[in-house]
Amino acid sequence: GPGGQTSSTEPGLLPGETVVREGKAAILFPSANEVFYNPVQEFNRDLTCAVITEFAREQLAQRGIRILVPGEKDRVVVRLSEEKNGTEDQEASEQPEKEQQKEEEDDKKEFITASVGERCEQGLRVLEGLAASGLRSVRFALEVPGLKSITANDYSAKAAALISRNAQHNNVSHILQASQRDASMVMYEARGKKERYDVIDLDPYGSPSPFLDAAVQAVSEGGLLCITCTDMAVMAGNSGETCYSKYGSMSIKSRYCHEMALRIILHSLDQRAAVYQRYIEPLLSVSVDFYIRVFVRVKTGQAVVKNSASKHALLYNCVGCGAFHLQRMGKKMSQGKHMKYSAATGPPVGPNCEHCRQRHQLGGPIWAEPIHDMKFVQKVLGAVSVNPTRFRTSKRIEGVLSMVTEELQDVPLYYVLDHLSSTVHCNTPPMLQFRSALLHAGYRVSLSHACKNAVKTDAPAGVLWDIIRCWEKSNPVKRERLSETSPAHRILSAEPALQACFEIREDANPQSRKRHLTRFQENPQANWGPKARAKAGWVILLMLFC
User: Counting C-beta atoms within 10 Å of the first and last residue's C-beta, which end of the chain has fewer, N or C?
Assistant: First the structure.
């Protein structure tokens, strides 16, 4: 049934217990809130199942094992340019083995297959460090093929007892082990090459920072770390000093704070991994609702770790107009076969902003490299879009991942269009016209999944202000109202060096916007979860009759 459904008439219930159904799992909960069920996180759990499935598909293929995912008819090959035509024939899609192509029959001879709910001897070992009721781990056992074992750990005795009951209730005790220990100790004891976990999922209440040192050591070579942060106030600039103590990075209040939060946790992970000659490769980093979630691979290699300084950057953010500049922590130059490392030179800004003459705030260091692996994201997106009934939040996963695939990979952070226009007090240009102006000027531009009106671009701030100056000429601002020292006055009193062209270009409108995908969460309501938007016609009828 649909996620988050509760009932209290299930066989095997103790007095005062309810059952929550999500994905393929039926989870026993003490009524009230003793062990916390959060329906808003269903998207996080669905996405995690989708990501671990693709990770398992890759890893197990190398071991000669083919995973069988319920609802998949064939090996997934997806070209995003093609639209799906209608829903697939249900019968066929539930029998992945029968509908094989001829060449697959030949492949099958060498392939062992792995199905959901069965223990795969050469499969992945998974640890959920802070498992509460065990919901997430039970879902892995029932929905992700190719797992050898899952350890669901929680420090609370009540939680550990509940995890055991939920493993039995869902008939997955042969894969899922409950554990009642300090999460860091579980990981520290698994640092040996043979004991390490292939996947470690940390979803704490609040900050994961106390567990990161152990996690980067206890994950296997090329293994997957899945980490949630819900301490968004700290990471988004409300208390930079607290953020520094947890993550070694100063957060600052800014329009790009959601992406900056992703780059702060990635900075912290890479820095802690580097201590052990390890480094991270981010696969997918998302900011959704009130939390952020990162999926990273961890690898070992002293030579690559030497690049670490040049992957991180300080951030100068102008308090007046929001222009920002990155300053890498180190410099690397290739000389033939060798890399030469040196100190970075800077700073990239003068004492005052060149556009509005106000001062800069210093933030970071943050991770300044790509935050997603596009090939991997395409695989996850492809698998979810050809198998839409697998998850209740499929539509939203598709929307978010489509936007992720459109993001400029090599451009950290973004500007926000309505902030640019409100800085100079003029009305906001339509997004398509503004993006077109950037394209006409020879720059690249994209949206960001992390913020609704984001402008992610390789154009320097000066070009953005020039485009705004040109826009203001046909949408004039009353100059006499502006104080001489205001950013608005200082920006508008300079003449644009560029003649902006606002003629709309076809390539200014990205696919995800054209296809009206569910890209952003609607505001919280009583039972908050991704839902279809009401059709405009109905709204008008309701207004007439209510």
Answer: C
